Automatic annotation (TrEMBL):
Pfam families xrefs: Aminotran_3
Cofactor(s) this protein requires: pyridoxal 5'-phosphate
Keyword Phosphoprotein: no
Descriptive protein name: Putrescine aminotransferase
Amino acid sequence: PTPVPDRTAPEWRALDAAHHLHPFTDHKALTEQGCRIITRAEGVWLWDSEGTRILDGMAGLWCVNVGYGRRELADAAARQMAELPYYTQFFRTATPPTIELARRLADLTPRGLSHAFFTNSGSEANETAIRMVRHYWALEGQPARTVIIGRDNGYHGSTVAAAAMSGMKAMHRQGGGPVPDFEHIRDPHRFRNGPDQSPEAFGRTAAGWLEEAIQAIGPGRVAAFIGEPIQGVGGLIVPPPGYWAEIQRICANHGILLIADEVTCGFGRTGHWFGSQTFDIRPDIMTLAKGLSSGYMPIAAVMVGQRVARTLIELGGEFAHGFTSSGHPTACAVALENISILDREGLVERVREDVGPYLMERLEGLSGHPLVGEVRGRGLMAGVELVRDKAGPGVFRPVGRVGTHCRDLCFKANAIIRAVGDTMVMAPPLIITRAEIDTLVDTLSRALDQTK
Ligand code: PLP
């Protein structure tokens, strides 16, 4: 007997409504509309329980970088499960796939990130980073350095502290309570926050908001700054030229730790292994998840640079932090095989040199559409910001919630494109072909024509 019985789509929907609370979901609306039951997948394609094929323009949730149906990953999991499914990394024990993955990540990530701390999700990786940087400063004899500065519309997870560190106001209101010592600066979204400035001037302005915040809080109280190289979930915000170099300079100037949240940007998405390489960021700490296993297993990691690692190891004693599944050997075996696939098949270069530029070129073709305010992106991470009223070049007035309507039209037409606010977001598997990109962009284009 299989553990999952064969049921019809209406049966699944009824059981789902009766028993399943979905993440980030309005359940009343879901029950009214009914959800689609996804039963299998191959390449960039999903199939629902009614046999309809759907183009996954989001790689699941920005994670299935090597695409669906990879036998090698199933085999890696099966081999490891047969040999040693689980053992803990607590109590002076370790498992070979875990050690090997830590070594591989230390090689792959930018210079100096020498140690990996494993978790199960991106939220947990960022929670870990929060505790780690505060612990670091206490060990360094500066316990007043507790404040972490993030950005409006930054997303770092939905656990209590990761949500507080995120810049999503709606999340702060829901059950998080006021959490002290998290501050936010405005995001570097020129389209909204500085449309009258040149990209270079706006890069300086937006980085200057960090300096202002540090001065307002007091430099001796700031532990770290955290940012996604490209803000994904918060609206596909691509930093203006010079922004990251200036952020880096400001952090160095005040001795503040720089955390790069690479949960969406990592593992080839922006055309380099990490977004930090695309924007020449040299973080002290880097958080990874999603593409680390292409979503085949829940696994995430905090990469720790030598500055922090040395203090933790030399002065820290026991860091009382971790999870039962930290460094889970089966998840690590799958992540190792996933990295091998990305490497072996040259998928990162493919994004940078072929399909990334092609996606951007095709999307640029939509710029003339009356609803399209701005097209932006890097690699296979792209956004099309919609506006109601395009008054003239450079004069846009973004209003309304046209994005959700456009998203629903795409979904009906069997393509998954996300709407964050009024920005249509795409992050397909890195194996997507030019022909599949054509299908994705043509579907978006037809949906835009019907969007109200
Ligand atoms: N950080 C970023 C940049 C993300 O986009 C996400 C999830 O979308 C997270 C952290 C949280 O990761 P998880 O959902 O695995 O907890």
